[in-house]
Amino acid sequence: MPSTPKQSGTGNENEKGVKSNDFLQTIAPEALAENLYKKNIELLTRNKTLSLLRELYEISILTLSPEELAERISNIVRIELGFELVGILMLTRDSSTLIPLALSQSEKVKNTLSKLSCSLEELKIPLSSEIFFTQVIHAGKEKITNNLDEVWKGLINPKKIQKIAEEDHIKTTLVFPLKVENKILGIIFLALNRSYEELSSFEKESVASFINVIALALEKASLYQELKIANEQLRELDLQKDELLGIIAHQLATPISSVRWNLEMMMDGDMGKLSKEQKESIKSLQGITENLSDLVSMILDVSRIQLGRMKVDPQELDLDQFFKEILEVITPKAKEKKIKFNIELPKKFPKAVLDKRYTHMTIENLLSNAVKYTPQGGMIDFEVKIKDRVIFCSVKDTGIGIPKQEQDKIFGKMYRATNVRNTVDGNGFGLYVAKGAIEAQEGKIWFKSIEGKGTTFFVELPLKKVFRKEDKLNKA
Ligand code: ADP
Questions:
Q1: What angle do CA 382, 388, 393 make, to 5 degrees?
Q2: Are 86 and 104 in contact, with CB atoms under 8 Å apart?
């Protein structure tokens, strides 16, 4: 309503001679009241929009599954904005069909739909059909109508539609596409008991402003869900791969040991006298099969750890003999590289109960790594101490070290540091299995290292613990 300018002799001063707002003075009281009322409504709507947006934002952060998110969004939008029915329909993965993800109905609508045995949850709308909802998808633009029949034609029996319109006084239906960067995810529809014309421009603005937020939240939730599924599939594939690896390694183990056995017989002359050249060649074949056999048992161990099937076999060990065997292999390797190899062992070893194969493999791996990653002329200190029935070993080298930023990955399956990948041969199984083997015996393995200066590995193992064979071990 246009306001009538107020006639005033004093211009911008009121009766008390106090200066007042020109604008207020020129507006009649009724118009002023109406203006204030409108501003109030506008403020209220803006406030409501802001608090709704904040709530939507919070929900989108907290809620992770698309179904849960859609349900909470449709409920909150319906209740806060006083709608009768709010629904979110999403396109299927192949974009062929629209199906409901969430529906929120007022009690009134719920009762009417149930009386009419009309269930919207089961809707399946092929995109090929030319109905109100699919037209919104095809056009990528919202559609608004005061005709309920137009919206639900082809989906609900016309008589039932009429009944819903009458009983629930649904006058307007707004359908918006849910779009993220031009990709249409689905639609949201809002049904209210007022006609569109009755909505203030702020209410219309308010509705439009949260549609994008909803689309983004749903996109985020479905991406998160896809990521979660992909991760689970990857984990499953990784397990299958380990299972397969285990089977292959198992199949290889028998022929390899048969080759080793035959080579040994030949070497012993059981198959006739050998020439010097023949002996040399068999010796080199023995070295190759030895490595192959180590690799196969390492792969078997990796797959056992991964599948949680690693079992320790504790047995009484003569530690003196145990270390002697290891040092017989390592000392010549260190000598070959002109590495000074300092060994400090206890004068007398107590009786020990340990898994021989795993402990042997661990200590030998640490020592052979020290030789492998220490340049010619370096130094290795190997120390073994026993205190309170705990054996403590350290292997210190003056080698290339492990880069600081990679140190937390070094016990990972097949992990090899970047400073060795293209220069020194290896497969990255050793430390992974060593960690599994030591922890399975309730021990600890750790290291400290400075790149370019050297590395020290430490192992601590309780000696007395007796394990049952069927102990199920933790996954590393
Ligand atoms: P591999 O030696 O076959 O690569 P390991 O599992 O035994 O596998 O070791 C994993 C990685 O840890 C190695 O590739 C190397 O990067 C690092 N590493 C292990 N021991 C040492 C060491 N003594 N000095 C430097 N790097 C080491």
A1: 15
A2: yes
Buried/exposed code over 253-266 (b: 16+ C-beta within 10 A; e: otherwise): beebeebbeebeeb
Distance CA(170)–CA(96), nearest Å, equals 29
Q: Which of 27-36, 61-70, 396-405, 417-426 has the largest mean confidence? A: 396-405
Q: Name the closest-CA residue to atom 21, ligand 1.
A: 369
Ligand 1 atom closest to the Cα of residue 395 is 23
Q: Hey, which of 294, 330, 410, 446 would you mutate to test ligand 1's pocket, going by the most ligand atoms within 8 Å of its Cβ?
A: 410
- Please tell me if the CB atom of residue 378 comes closer than 6 angstroms to any atom of ligand 1: no
DSSP string, 69-100: HHHHHHHHHHHHHT-SEEEEEEE-TTSSEEEE
d(CA 18, CA 286): 111
Q: Where are the alpha helices (DSSP H) in 337-444?
A: 356-372, 430-440
Find, among 258, 199, 229, the residue nearest to 49 by Cα: 199
Angle at the Cα of 12 from the Cα atoms of 10 and 14, rounded to 5 degrees: 70
Answer yes or no: are the C-beta atoms of 334 and 296 closer than 8 Å: no
Instruction: Indicate yes or no: pTM above 0.85.
Output: no
Please, are residues 136 and 142 in contact by the beta-carbon 8 Å criterion?
A: yes
Q: For ligand 1, say whether the CB of 435 is within 6 Å of any of its atoms.
A: no
Contacts of 167 (CB under 8 A, 6+ apart): 108, 112
Cα separation, 433 vs 444, in Å, equals: 13
Among 172, 204, 201, residue whose Cα is nearest residue 189: 172
Distances from the Cα of 69 to the Cα of 5, 61, 222, 394, angstroms:
53, 10, 10, 54
Weakest-pLDDT range from 37-51, 178-192, 288-302: 37-51
- Please tell me the least confidently modeled range out of 129-138, 193-202, 314-323: 193-202
Count Cβ atoms below 10 Å from residue 313 Cβ, excluding itself. 11
Q: What residues have CB less than 8 Å from 248, skipping those under 6 apart?
A: 299
Give the C-alpha separation, 148 to 34, whole Å. 33
Q: How far apart are CA 103 and CA 123, in angstroms?
A: 11
Ligand 1 neighbour 367 (Cβ under 6 A): no
- 308-331 pLDDT tens trace: 888 888 899 999 999 999 999 999
Q: How far is CA 386 from CA 97, 319, 343, 349, 389, in A?
A: 71, 11, 15, 8, 6
Span 394-453, pLDDT tens digits: 999 999 999 999 999 999 988 999 999 989 999 899 999 999 999 999 999 999 999 999
